[in-house]
Design brief:
Layout: H1 2-24, H2 39-42, E1 44-52, E2 61-69, E3 75-83, E4 86-96, E5 102-108, E6 111-120, E7 126-130, E8 137-141, H3 148-160, E9 168-170
Antiparallel strand pairs: 1-2, 1-8, 1-9, 2-3, 3-4, 4-5, 5-6, 6-7, 7-8
Length: about 170
């Protein structure tokens, strides 16, 4: 019986991975992170200005992300926002990789995903974040809003990297 259960579990995993791979086919993105990345300048509070829709933030507004370096070298990630009139919060963890500008982030058990800093201004006031998948993209700012010209510039950078910027949800008051 255990052998049959193992085969069923393996089949389910293959099917799930196939679905994720199929969803990404047809859209090629450049998810290369920045070459120079200073973690200390990235730590702290960020305000989400725009994002592509995904289930774990669906319907949320006033989203923030806080990155705090812990004594053990890991990074605590606290994402919060307002959903259905109430503030919700998700805590996760991140760790550095050998690739500058690439973190591995987890909000669930030991499942990590790439978190790439695709662009960041020289003063650290905004960042464009993506992953290997064309489905995940965020525009973050140190302030709750960005000037229109700055936002248009960041969106143009994302579009040049192959992201479907027409689907961005703007949460810029």
């Amino acid at each position: 019986m255990k052998r049959k259960q193992y085969r069923m579990l393996l089949l389910a995993l293959v099917l799930i991975l196939g679905v994720f791979a199929y969803e990404s086919i047809g859209q090629s993105i450049d998810s290369t992170p920045v070459e120079k990345f200073d973690l200390k300048s990235f730590l702290g509070r960020w305000y989400e200005i725009a994002r592509l829709d995904h289930r774990f933030e669906r319907g949320m507004t006033a989203v923030t992300a806080d990155y705090v370096l812990k004594k053990d070298g890991t990074i605590e990630v606290i994402n919060s926002g307002i959903k259905n009139g109430k503030r919700t919060e998700a805590k996760g963890k991140a760790k550095l990789t050998d690739t500058p500008g690439r973190l591995r982030v987890s909000f669930f058990w030991f499942f990590y995903s790439d978190y790439n800093v695709l662009a960041m201004d020289e003063k650290g006031q905004w960042a464009l974040i993506g992953s290997k998948s064309p489905k995940y993209l965020w525009i973050l700012s140190r302030m709750p809003s960005l000037e229109d010209a700055t936002l248009r510039h960041i969106i143009a950078l994302a579009k040049a990297k192959g992201y479907d910027t027409d689907k961005l949800i703007i949460d810029n008051p």
